Amino acid sequence: MKVRKAVIPVAGLGTRFLPATKAIPKEMLTVVDRPTIQYIVEEVVASGIEQVIFVTSEGKSAIENHFDYDFQLDTVLKMKKKNKMAEELNHISNLIDIVSVRQKKPLGLGHAIWSARDVVGDEPFAVLLGDDLVLSDQPCCHQMISLFDEVQEAIVAVQQVPLDQTSNYGIVEGRPYNDRTYKIDRMVEKPAPGTTESNLAIIGRYILLPEIFEMLEKTKPGHGGEIQLTDALLQLSQQRSIYAYEFKGIRFDAGDKLGYLKAIVAFGLRHADLGKEFREHLKQMSETL
Ligand code: UTP
User: I need a surface site. Which of 2, 49, 238, 284 has the fewest CB within 10 A?
Assistant: First the structure.
């Protein structure tokens, strides 16, 4: 089976980034020259995905509008001979086929993914969190799809974190399978300090099988009163193998204030036109301030 669809949940409230996210979705905050969500959609396009399914909520229409064709803007830009910008905007609206479903209540990531079940149907699919950025040479989603082509089982992307930070993440315990890959034995959402020896933390990239929907249906609210994807995956792991993959790249939690700042610095340094000058500026600033 091939992975053709990507679910991108963007229905969260973004409380960690208030007041910036009171009227603007956190996924629309700019990292250098485009909103966070555009990097994520570009990642799925570069990974060969054919359809994006946004899971949205009230107040998130700016995300859908960003990827839509804006006839009025296109006409005005062309009239003003700003053809290059018109072209760029058309490119964004033609990136990929996008559909949206609504998550009616913010009941957690697991519930957000469950809300996409009818559009996903009976096939494997990728999940990319709308506020998780990965800077890498080969797109993270693409790396995971290559592994999926081999194992045909669910995969979660992980990174090693300091042991004293494991209680901030979903943590997996597993046995090495091959280079960068583990077969998962146990998973736990935000474990209490000292309750796990693993430092493999789940980040916002998954390849899932449609069986996950049945598990989500049965999953009771867990940590924080939310329906946790990790709990449903743990159920699924009783029946099928699940793999953890240590992706190549650097991950930024752009839904967190410090994570967002770090993302701007990293993407700024890597930017084709601005990177060189920005690097000089950062050097000067770190000496001056
Ligand atoms: P977060 O853990 O970042 O939660 O969700 P949040 O509500 O968006 O933000 P904070 O913690 O209040 O600041 C991780 C991902 O899951 C989505 C979010 O949009 C984000 O992409 N999500 C979360 C949903 O789609 N629905 C939910 O009910 C919860």
Answer: 238
β 154-160/242-246 pair status? parallel
Residue nearest to atom 22 of ligand 1 (CA): 12
Q: What is the dihedral of CA 260, 262, 267, 269, to 10 degrees?
A: 150
Query: Distance between CA atoms of 161 and 171, rounded to whole angstroms?
Result: 10
Eight-state DSSP code of residue 49: -
Assign residue 59 the CATH number of its domain: 3.90.550.10
Global pTM? 0.95
Ligand 1 atom closest to residue 131's alpha carbon, by position in its atom list: 21
Of residues 166, 185, 164, the one with CA closest to residue 174: 185
Residue 274 belongs to what domain range?
5-288
Please state the domain count of the chain. Answer: 1
Torsional sign, CA 269, 273, 274, 277: positive
Phi and psi based region of residue 173 (left: phi greater than 0; alpha: psi -120 to 50; beta: remaining):
beta
Asked whether 130 and 11 are in contact (CB, 8 A), the reply is: no
Q: Is 9 in the pocket of ligand 1 (CB under 6 A)?
A: yes
Sign of the Cα torsion 136, 141, 142, 147 reads positive
Q: How far is the CA of 98 from the centre of ligand 1 (A)?
A: 20
User: Distance between CA atoms of 190 and 171, rounded to whole angstroms?
Assistant: 7
Q: How far is CA 150 from the centre of its chain?
A: 22
SS3 88: helix
Percent of the chain clearing pLDDT 90 (strictly above): 83
Q: How far apart are CA 124 and CA 102, in angstroms?
A: 21
Task: Output the residue whose Cα is nearest ligand 1's atom 18.
Answer: 12
Amino acid at 57: S
Q: What is the pLDDT of residues 192-217, one digit of tens each?
A: 988 888 999 999 999 999 999 999 99
- What size, in residues, is the chain? 289
As a whole number, mean pLDDT of residues 254-270 equals 96
Name the 3-class secondary structure at 219: coil
